[in-house]
Specification:
Blueprint (H helix, E strand, L loop, with lengths): L3 E5 L3 E5 L8 E6 L3 E7 L3 E6 L5 E5 L3 E4 L1 H8 L3 E2 L7 E3 L5 E3 L13 E4 L2 E5 L4 E2 L5 H10 L10 E2 L2 E2 L1 H10 L9 H4 L4 E2 L11 E5 L5 E9 L2 E6 L1 E7 L3 E4 L4 E11 L2
Antiparallel strand pairs: 1-4, 1-7, 2-3, 4-5, 5-6, 8-13, 9-10, 9-12, 11-12, 14-15, 16-22, 17-18, 17-22, 18-19, 19-20, 20-21, 21-22
GO molecular function: cysteine-type peptidase activity
GO biological process, one term: proteolysis
InterPro entries: NLP_P60_dom, Papain-like_cys_pep_sf, Peptidase_C40, SH3-like_bac-type, SH3_16
Length: about 260
């Protein structure tokens, strides 16, 4: 099949493991995410997300076509929806789209962004992709506090642990991969918990040694992570201690620094 391209034209689109409404949600696309179209069936298209290389199946009606000459420009996005609640864009028909933080604003210029041939009015001040401080990382992460946990989620109404980290760092100009084990292969190692700085990222493994969880250190004794909801818990050399449950819930494997 000739290589084709698309762009997500809804606020949130589910990316599934199989071409079925009953299939597991593996991740999500946000408004403005651009993709390669790998395979097509009558309803479902298998795509590859340009941002993190993640593949999955989605309803083709949630995509607009993108011409090849526009594709390269989309990789160099500079404007995002910020960590706020009032991220509204108005479509060509006058209807509103309510965007989650970290959504792209493709080809943004003079208060408008563009998806294919359609023009959207941006009714907020966009965030810009630029280097951020450790304080910026913490401010962004705590904005998501109490967002409910959702396997595969990446938005304000449901997010998983690695999706949480990916969006927080995207909003601060740092690209992370999608899954916790992939993110653990990035960054530089922090050797001791006492050397932790705000914004460092801790990874946790299961009994088989597989990395299954991730969260951001607020300091050497506290972590913010998505577990049931985005929450702040105590942390030590053993791992995360949940005071509500009265026990450790995640075993520390490694700490990495990305900023």
């Amino acid at each position: 099949m000739e290589l084709q391209y698309g762009i997500c034209k809804v606020a949130v689109a589910q990316l599934r493991a199989e071409p079925s409404d009953r299939a597991e949600i593996s991740t999500q696309l946000l408004f403005g995410d651009h993709v390669e179209i790998i395979e097509k069936t009558e309803k479902w298209w298998r795509i590859k997300n340009a941002y993190d290389g993640y593949e999955g199946w989605m309803d083709f009606k949630q995509l607009d076509n993108v011409q090849a000459d526009v594709w390269d420009k989309l990789d160099n996005y500079k404007h995002l929806t910020p960590a706020s609640l009032n991220n509204t864009v108005i479509g060509p028909d006058g209807s509103a789209y309510y965007l989650s933080p970290g959504s792209n604003l493709p080809l943004y210029q003079d208060g408008y962004c563009y998806l294919g041939d359609e023009k959207f009015k941006v009714e907020f001040n966009p965030g810009t992709v630029s280097p951020s401080t450790k304080e910026d990382l913490i401010t962004t992460a705590t904005f998501f506090q109490n967002v409910p946990y959702l396997w595969g989620g990446k938005n304000l109404y449901g997010i998983d642990c690695s999706g949480f980290m990916q969006i927080v760092f995207k909003l601060n100009g740092i690209k992370l991969k999608r899954d916790a084990w992939q993110q653990a292969e990035q960054g530089s190692v922090v050797d001791f918990l006492q050397e932790v700085e705000p914004g460092d990222v801790a990874f946790f493994d299961n009994d088989e040694g597989r990395i299954t969880h991730v969260g951001m250190m607020l300091n050497a004794t506290e972590i913010i992570h998505a577990s049931g909801k985005v929450r702040i818990d105590k942390m030590d050399n053993q791992g995360i201690y949940n005071a509500e449950l009265g026990r450790y819930t995640h075993k520390l494997r490694i700490i990495k620094r990305f900023a």
